[in-house]
């Protein structure tokens, strides 16, 4: 350990290498607080060259590496399990100038999502991905997990925003794939391989991001419904309006908790709510009004036409980040269901929770346009009684057990619920080609059976 620490310190400086047990313990717990591991050191490189040198040293010493960004993931993807060296990208913080004409910005992997939003806004543009952990989530981690978020219905996931990448491979080689033209059919689309690879194929150090024009007009609505099926139907109708930015499902139980326990000024009284946002170069309010007449909800929707009013309605969605932690770390599920089976899945999932964890409180929210649902089971100390049963329900209803948070280490041994054996074997072959020693993010994505 002394030799490893000294070699790393020679590269990054003594201040940026530590084996302090308290520091390592705090860095070895996931964002939910449910899952923990062990690490032997933390190294914080300042640039791509130091990342490459640190990887080379760890490989020479036979020390596996777990890469960490903002550590906001929800599938234990940054939890070390093999006495790893933790490699943090937090010091990679350079923000390039916005190229307004091209609609592009280049940032280091440790730059936060909020910082990208700010840089884009100062140039009169916007970045298309937004998530609740925007103040701490890093762009490198979001690219590595192909994060989605609140506006995927319009802009797509991170894969649609990334136009180029710089990556340090497990052998220390640095690859820079920058697309300077709009059409490039020269060989493999390597950025598409690294985006979503969850750090198993290399350390992302720099990302080129697409930026978008800011729409001049916006209409935000919040509407209550008595059934999830009615929300799904309303979402389908709203999608016929051009310029839909967001279609967010809100569980009425969660809003009641927010009102009663957090004192939040949110609507209550209906079982489900739909937060919708439509924007464009021209005022869409008449189109939205006509669509709402077609939907004919039980109550008139709350409508906002300005920024302040929109923020008030969005607060109903934002409060779920705090609601799900009211009873300690929740049991989290991130799944995508076909819209035709979404309501049936939700009913069955609530039934499973009631049967096997009667004191628990199931709360659902998510991006209903994609069928991407976040099920959080609050006050559920016995996760084992519920976890596998819910994953089996996802499969039964034709869904995917990992929608936008990734596989991480939490779902690695359930990967066969989403992929065929042939799919997994092909992915494992790619992993072995890039990382034959399996020393980078060893606990992530692939089932234990492949590593025996």
UniProtKB/TrEMBL annotation:
Gene3D superfamilies: 3.30.465.10, 3.30.70.2190, 3.30.70.2740, Uridine Diphospho-n-acetylenolpyruvylglucosamine Reductase, domain 2, Vanillyl-alcohol Oxidase, Chain A, domain 4. Keywords: FAD, Flavoprotein, Oxidoreductase. Pfam families: FAD-oxidase_C, FAD_binding_4. Residues 35-214 form the FAD-binding PCMH-type domain. It comes from the Bacteria. InterPro entries: FAD-bd_oxidored_4_C, FAD-bd_PCMH, FAD-bd_PCMH-like_sf, FAD-bd_PCMH_sub1, FAD-bd_PCMH_sub2, FAD-linked_Oxase-like_C, FAD-oxidored/transferase_4, Oxid_FAD_bind_N. Its cofactor is FAD. The keyword Oxidoreductase applies. Belongs to the FAD-binding oxidoreductase/transferase type 4 family. This is FAD-binding oxidoreductase.
């Amino acid at each position: 350990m002394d030799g490893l620490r000294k070699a790393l310190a020679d590269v990054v400086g003594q201040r940026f290498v530590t084996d302090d047990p308290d520091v390592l313990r705090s860095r070895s717990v996931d964002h939910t607080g449910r899952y923990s591991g062990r690490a032997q050191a933390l190294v914080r490189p300042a640039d791509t060259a130091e990342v490459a040198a640190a990887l080379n040293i760890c490989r020479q010493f036979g020390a596996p590496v777990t890469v960490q960004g903002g550590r906001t993931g929800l599938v234990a993807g940054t939890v070390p399990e093999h006495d790893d060296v933790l490699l943090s990208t937090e010091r990679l913080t350079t923000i390039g100038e916005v190229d307004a004409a091209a609609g592009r910005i280049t940032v280091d992997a440790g730059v936060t999502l909020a910082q990208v939003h700010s840089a884009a806004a100062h140039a009169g543009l916007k970045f298309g991905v937004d998530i609740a952990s925007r103040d701490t989530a890093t762009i490198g981690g979001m690219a590595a997990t192909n994060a989605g978020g609140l506006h995927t219905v319009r802009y797509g996931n991170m894969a649609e925003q990334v136009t180029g990448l710089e990556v340090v491979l497990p052998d220390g080689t640095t690859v820079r794939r920058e697309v300077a033209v709009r059409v490039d059919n020269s060989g493999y689309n390597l950025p598409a391989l690294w985006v979503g690879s969850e750090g198993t194929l290399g350390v992302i150090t720099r990302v080129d991001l697409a930026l978008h024009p800011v729409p001049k007009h916006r209409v935000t609505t919040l509407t209550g419904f008595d059934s999830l099926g009615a929300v799904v139907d309303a979402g389908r109708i709203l999608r016929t309006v051009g310029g839909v930015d967001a279609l967010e499902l809100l569980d009425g139980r969660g809003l009641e908790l927010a009102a009663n326990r957090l004192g939040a000024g949110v609507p209550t009284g209906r079982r489900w709510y739909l937060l919708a946002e439509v924007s464009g170069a021209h005022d869409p309010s008449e189109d939205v009004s006509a669509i709402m007449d077609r939907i004919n909800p039980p109550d008139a929707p709350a409508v906002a036409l300005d920024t302040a009013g929109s923020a008030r309605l969005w607060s109903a969605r934002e409060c779920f980040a705090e609601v799900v932690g009211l009873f300690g770390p929740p049991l989290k599920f991130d799944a995508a269901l076909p819209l035709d089976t979404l309501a049936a899945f939700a009913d069955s999932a609530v039934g499973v929770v009631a049967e096997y964890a009667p004191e628990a409180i199931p709360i659902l929210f998510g991006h209903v346009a994609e069928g991407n649902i976040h099920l959080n089971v609050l006050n559920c100390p016995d996760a084992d009684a519920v976890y596998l049963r819910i994953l089996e329900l996802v499969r039964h209803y034709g869904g995917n057990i990992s929608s936008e948070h990734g596989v991480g280490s939490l779902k690695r041994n359930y990967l066969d619920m989403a992929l065929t054996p042939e799919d997994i074997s092909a992915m494992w072959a790619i992993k072995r080609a890039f990382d034959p020693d399996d020393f980078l993010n060893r606990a992530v994505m692939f089932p234990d059976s492949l590593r025996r």
